[in-house]
Amino acid sequence: MNDKSFDNFLQQQLQNASPYLDDGDFSARVMAALPVQKRLNPWLEKLIVILPVSVIALLVASQFSLRGLIQPAYGWLLTLNVTSVISLTAMMAVAMLVVSVMLILKPRALF
To answer: pTM of the full predicted structure?
Structure first.
């Protein structure tokens, strides 16, 4: 049997297949008999997410050299001038304001 005739055969079989097999409401009775799914405590759901993420973040952070992270930041801080400090402060204030407004106007809870 070549590929074209098999494709034609398969297409014909799929077109002639009925989409639903009547089971005399067996499926509906089985679905009705299933137990109701229990929800976890919201705090437990948050803990299940936060705990592994925190452990992984601490493991990744432990691989960095503390001195290698602090030294460039301290050097950058020493080279700042007054206008840079003022603009950095203004950007941080705008960011805090935007985040606050977004949290107040959020359409649903974050967790």
So the answer is: 0.37
